[in-house]
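User: Fold both of these, please.

Assistant: Here is the first one.
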Amino acid sequence: MSVWLLCALLFSLIGRTKQDGHPVSIKEVQLYAEKTDTSNTGVWVLNVEWRDEFAQNDEFEKISYDIEVFRTEKKMSVHNETIHVMPNKTTFYHWKWTSPIPLQCTSHSVRLRHRDQLYIGEWTPLYTYNGQDLNAVETIVYPYDQVFMVGSNITFCCIVETDSDAPVDPFPTPISNRTYITKPIHFDRPSESTSDIECKVNKSFSSGGASLFIGYPPDDQNLTCITRDLSSVECRWEKGRKTYLVVNRETKYKLNGSDCEFGQCVLREVIKQTTKQVTSWTLIAKNPLGVKTLTDTADPTHRVLMRAPIKISHVADARKVDLYWSWNEKNYASFQVICQVELNGSNYNENFSGEGLSSLVLVNLQPFTKYTARVRCGSYEHFYEWGDWSEITEFSTLEDIPEAVDVWIQYFEQNIYVLWKPLTEQQSHGIITGYNVTIGNTTERIGPNTQLCYKITLGKEKSDQIITVSANNSAGQSTPSTIIPSYPGEHLKYIQMLFKWVEKVVHIKNSNGGFEMSWEKYPNSTCGYVVEWFPTYKKKQCDVEWEKISECDSDACNTWNKSGTFVDGERYTVSVYACTNDAPKLLKRIEGYAVEQKPGKVQNLRGKNNDGNIVLSWDEVPLDLQKGFIQGYNVITLLSDSETFINMTKTKEREVNLKLDPGSYTFLVSAFTSKGGGDNSTYIMDIKIDQMIAATIVGCSAAALVFIIITVLCYRKQKWLKKLLYPDIPEPKLAGKWITKGIYCTQMTEGYLKCEIQEVHSLEHPAMPESLHGLDLISSNSKVFPAHFYQNISESPVDISYDPVEKLTSILENPSYNLTMPEPVDVAQISDLTLEMQDAYLPAPNFVQNNLLVKDSESYKPQKA
């Protein structure tokens, strides 16, 4: 075998050696440009085809060729390449080359040669593809009217009319006698309109230009195919990124080989609801820059998107409505559907289902109310998504009995008023025709347009009568709302008592412009609580607001927080009542401001000059102008002439003392709250030095004159004053006729007195001890008393009646003697002791201290005990 192979190789070498110098074996060479829709405006791909006689040998698995491309006119090589092909005895060999510039710019020539491991053939002659520069009759630019992808680098060529013409920038490089090219131009942004490249020629100022389009290939996504009528398939998808290509360059679509447009791809198919039929759909999207293929697979009966119901109608009642509709697809009649209703723009809280469903009932509607409704449906068994909405239908429900009104009472100027809030449209259930106010057995009809406030008259004995209020419309009368008032006088008295222990004024510090109330739970509350508020200083008849609160869950309630309804700078009275089976019970009352403001002016600013000590005083800001809680007052002192600031004083009192030098002063006084100071009240005062001296002299002179007058009067009336202030006390004197009984007392040891009752014998036979200075006493009975026995005798004078001394049991303190007030002494403790004397006298001090004082016998009349 090796000998035979060696022989074959030798014969082959001999044969090839014989072929050296003979014509090449490459025959039938053809050059042509690849045809496209835009070949006339720019073509880049050059195709080369040939046959090779020598390629009929089967000695080698592959055959190689050298290929070289020239720009013909300049004989400039622009590409060379060695290619390898499989030996083929019958067909042409084929090679493609993409030019960096359009082939129209200049002529291109190609030559080939055969090569293998042992042999390199000769080059073929040049085969030429002619460019448009050979017979151009005008200046023209290639490429033009073409589409390129964003990010492309494009080289343009300009072919001028004659060889002598030369274009200006941006065509600096000649590649033939009449063709000039640009450097590669980069396009990094898409363009909805054309991008123009212009070629100007110096000599003739003639020019040509090219327009091109920059965009993206198709980017369609998410193909989904559905059925709407159970007899055809509609496919939907998203376009994805915008291509920026329009008109005849926009994307074209084919679904399962059939042309269609975006959003309108429909295929007629036989869809059976009882059997499974999985189907595939293919979408091809194509534009000049590329192709995108999408697929979807599903059972059409699981992709049902129902059309909208038609011919919606209704039958309305007060609180429900029946809706009816029909279908424009006959296949829906036997299809299990589920439907949804949108009522007044919101989904109704219940869905409805059934085979070929065409009606439903909406309940729990508001009476006398306008509604809008629409319906959409979907597949009940294999729900895919909701179908299209029907047209909107409008209807109104009928009237119904109104809801109960919110009733309250007001006590105003010793009168009782029953008030109630107007019903809203949702509460009235129709047009209110009036109100009924019933007090006991008496009913009063109130018109719908009158003030919702009614004055009631109750006697004290009827203060517990029930008052009811009800509203009327064409459907009937609402449930009566009841309230039990209390007698106004008793109510106000109760409030006054309550104010002794509740907060009367509370400084509200809420930042949200409202009030916040809390109170303790009232054990006897049966229906919650009522919070009432009204302007404190501008209260008017029926000018009351209230809000009812349900029962509290804990012992302390903190459930009422109101803002946004109060006037800034207005003081309000806020009260909390407990709702009971009887009259409402007041639990708490406060006054305060939701939002404080600057106060008004202080009133009646006045001043007083006391020898340079200025006393300013004023009245407070009127209550209705305080606008907040007065925290104090600012007092500013200025010199009147120059308005020079002297000082400023803050005080909480409505009076201030200022020590000032002589001069003319202006005083500015303003009240301030937490929001700042109010307007100033002005007072001007002049303080002069001569006025101060005169005031001092007059004061001293007046004091001296008064002292002199008093001294003179005292000197001239000294005897009268002595008699008045220090009267003479006469010596004891016994004269006249004594009665038959008397008392005699002597000092004993340890602070006791010894007193005796003696009888008088006669004036002619006196028997008088020395201590009584001649009193004639016949007999005596004695008793001992403490020395303080006489203390009470001098305090309150009473009459003395006689009784034996044995009945005397009281022991009193020793009295003190008042020389300036010689009044009768109090002997109430010894009322049973009596003595009489014919002539009265004023006893000496020693006698008063050591003896019992007695009344004049002529003016004294004994009384029975």
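And the second sequence with its predicted structure:
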Amino acid sequence: MAAKKHPIFDTATTLGKLMLFLGVSSICGVLIAGLMVPAVALTGNTATSSINFFDQLPDDMTVGVPAQSSVVLASDGSVLAKFYDQNRTEVKLAAISPFMKNAIIAVEDSRYYEHGGIDTKGLLRAVSAMAQGGDRQGASTITQQYVNNVIIQTYAANGEKDKIKLGAAKTTGDKVREIKLAIAMEKKYSKDDILQGYLNWVYFANNNYGIESAASYYFGVHAKDLTLPQAATLAGVVNSPTYYDPVANPDHAVSRRNMVLDRMLDQKKIDKKQHDAAVKAKIDLKITPNQAGCATAVRGEYFCQYVTNLILNDPVYGKTKADREKLLAQGGLTIKTTLDPKLQDAAQAQFANFTPMNNNPDKVGQALVTVQPLTGKILAMAQNTKINAPKGQWSSDYNFAVDRVDTKGQSLGGAGGFDVGSTIKPFTFAEWLNDGHKINEMVDASVRKYPVGYPWVNTCGTSKGIYDSNYPGSTDLQNAEEGWYRRLTAREGLYNSLNTATMYTASKLDLCNIQKMMTAAGIHLGENPNKPYDLSNTSSLLGSGEVAPLTMASAFATFASGGVHCDPIALVSITNAKGDKFPVPSANCKQTIKPEVAAGVVSVLQEVLVRGSGYQIPLNFPAGAKTGTTNDSQQTWTTGFTKGLVTSSWLGSPENKNRGNNDKLIAGTRIPYVDGATYAGKAWQGYMNAVAGSFDTGAFPAPPASMVNPIVVAPPTPVTPAPNTGNDKGNNTKPPAPTPKKKD
């Protein structure tokens, strides 16, 4: 701030005269900075002692940045949510209406640009009036009020409310110190700087600190757009924010506003015509309620919760969690995120078709989360509950889409993932190709027994699992439908989601390498992200492991991007009120899977939507997907992609993960069997068809020809060729295409 030069008063001379007049009363003390002073002259000795006392007081006060609201923004700059202890947005003096500046000076300190921090004339006038038995009058300047506000609000922001002194609690020393600080402030800062600071610090009732927040709350405008009657109303509030509160006491507010207008007219800051029109104006409030925290977010409240947890958990934003909470509530952070409002709204709208918030008696949970390949950006994160739902709707503290904790064990507010069912199968297929096997290589899907002691290969540890009806309590391995226990291609096994085909391919691989393939795609357990997907029991190859929807979307994005894995990211930038930038997590995009392997997997997942387990949910663009359904339909999934978007859609039971969802009320009806394509898939289809066209919908690269078909060794030529009888037409006929699966 620029240094101040004062045209009229030498502050040392002024204070010397003031102290000679005021001194210290032996009866009640001198309330120098207040509104009451003794109306008696003091002896020279007393005055000399007062001056010595004054000289020994500190005269330096650091005016820091006031506690300011933090704001969370979507990718387009729209506000998602605010956080604050004191609802304040700091603005420059040039961004404040001239009416407001003139009104506050007229009513609070008419000689503001003439005095040097204290107004001797005003103070003596107040003393004289009270000495003659008149009413108590104000004598505190804007600079003195500013000092008082800074002291009080700094204590409050630092959690030191016990140090705050108001009114009669202040000692004479406290008040004299404030006077000296006011004088020091006037020496250090310009008048405009002090006025700017005052208007940003002063309290306007209803948890509104500073003129920008007050203008927004009471009138729905920025401070620069305040009209004359609006500015006069707010200028009147600061004298007694409770008594002149325009919401609670509108009559008081109007009376005070008109008094402010009278002062402005007397001081020639407005003319008679402006005055009369403003006095006649209705107060015309347009209240914009103060709302703080993710529960009040405009959209994406669970995404907001996820973002704030990322900040509160990361030491880069403060040494302790208390420091980070203070930064969020007081630091004036601008937090720009990756959330796309159009996608978020489209995702949220899907739930009305299946599990609406106001008609979901069975508490069937549903979530959609979208990431962008090659960037890791989380573009949408929606679910069919609210953090604080109105009566009749379902409230949940849990974010269905994310892990329970981060890598340091600190809460992310997530449900911890759900059994993923058959959506895990593409990763075994990816390792099948990575190991040198072919897409159209024959596998024996008739093998259903994997008895105790089956020789699974796992160079990372041990794996076991029993599928054997000869063993008590076990059964042979099952597919969702009969008719598929036969030899077929690995391609058919994946797009038809055959358990026996997946288990057979795994039996020819090192399970350690399957696990490494999953890790390369970013898959980890939702309860503990430090742990890889657990293959110690072979049932996990078929999806009996809990993974969060965000993790599944990110993993499938690795396939959609040609093998480039990116960590999912929610933060684009964070800056504080001073413009300082904080680091944000990187997506760490790396080539973790061979491009040809990713292309091979994608080529088969595209067939899922044509003739496989997702044939009912095709998109209008080139796309691939995998459905998943656990036993008794406890958890159902569709995770799928275009070239530009990847979305994981989940429907299940978040509060009781072992409860099946068959016969539950979904989409206004109850059906006996729910699979991954039924509702999770239909939500995925409707959402992706609505939004994917705004992103890359190009064709995917084909896998190399050498990956598709195994080399066929021609049989030796027989010595005597068999005669052609003309009866082998059946040998030249392609087998009929299998009936599309209706279950997963």
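The two ends are 69 Å apart (CA to CA).
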